[in-house]
Amino acid sequence: MVAPVDCTLSVQTILRVAWLYYMENLTQAEIGERLGLTRARVNRMLSEARHNGTVSIRLNSAFASCTELEHQLRQQCGLDDAVVIPSPENPELVASLIGMAAGAYLSKFLEEKRPRTVGIGWGATLRETIRHVTPAEYPDLWIVSMMGGLSRGLELNTFEIAGELARRLHAKCSYLAAPIYARSRRSRDTFMSQEVYAEVLDRVDRIDLALLSLGDLSPRSLLVRHGLPPDVGIDDLRAVGAVGDVLGQFLEQSGRQVNHGINARAIALPIEKLTRAPTVMLIAGGINKVPVIAAALLGRIGKVLVTDEKAAAGALKLIGKRR
Which helix (H) or strand (E) holds 293? Predict the structure, then answer.
């Protein structure tokens, strides 16, 4: 008979490993010897501690190149603020590292600004952001999903993302319990006019802070993989000049919405209403996101951007060409 795993012991061991490594400056080999662990297992525990937010790493020395890019983004794109992190060598780490920076920024924003209603989209980077938000008590805060979700279960569904942020902040939560896309514009209007959605749509219209990721047109995009209706393909969207989406609504390189019926089918806060929110925080990075980041900035959709160095430099270069 196999003995059950002691989950509490595992968590305590991870905490002890992290303390010995970061606070007492022991090497991984020394920690392994002290706790009876292999060096490989110590390494995995340290990675897990960083990934789940147990360990938060803060660099006090500014990277000059990132600081300069932040300045350029504020000056050239009319942003209230910008956070640029060094691009990791491994592109698979972009979402988690940007999420770490965005989580820290959001935690400070919530503490200082005390918004009443926060609207949220979906995406892998937003999931990572939520993992790094400092747990707090905001019982009067509403977290509102700004778009419909998938009809099948998925860890990154809009409902799960909004609910997890609400749990972390001990806040209230509302869902836009509908699919991302309706079958037609008429169906979309019928959905949105139903009385059951009136309360959540009213809150969505009055958000103080919007948290958004941006989707590209590559297979890495969650919307492309899981959310597009069966009658719309990537080639259809590229043919009308789409470079990516904001809340399921596709933009061309200038920042304007493409001339395609899919935008009128999106069950989400319309972009024209989104831009009226006091603060719209864009959280996205990676070379694949450069065109849609540039488009969102040209369209003046966001007021705060959290991204990585290569994406920031690439977006600024594109913006310079298009002006």
Answer: helix 290-298
Given a contact cutoff of 8 angstroms between Cβ atoms, the answer to whether 148 and 231 are in contact is no
Q: Rounded to whole angstroms, how far apart are CA atoms 274 and 276?
A: 5
Please name which of 165, 160, 159, 161 lies closest in space to residue 179, comparing C-alpha atoms: 159
Chain segment 1-43, per-residue pLDDT in tens: 333 434 444 777 888 888 889 878 889 999 999 999 999 999 9
- Tokens standing for 1? 């008979």
Specify which residues 257 forms β-bridges with: 251
Our CA dihedral for 131, 132, 138, 140, rounded to 10 degrees, sits at -60
Give CB contacts under 8 A, 24+ apart, made by 190-196. 191/267, 192/267
Overall pTM surpassing 0.85 (yes/no): no
Closest-CA residue to 319 (of 69, 142, 94): 69
Query: For 133-184, what is each residue's pLDDT tens digit?
Result: 999 999 999 999 999 887 665 556 788 899 999 999 999 999 888 889 999 9
Whole-angstrom CA distances from 128 to 72, 96, 98, 117, 168 are 26, 5, 8, 21, 13
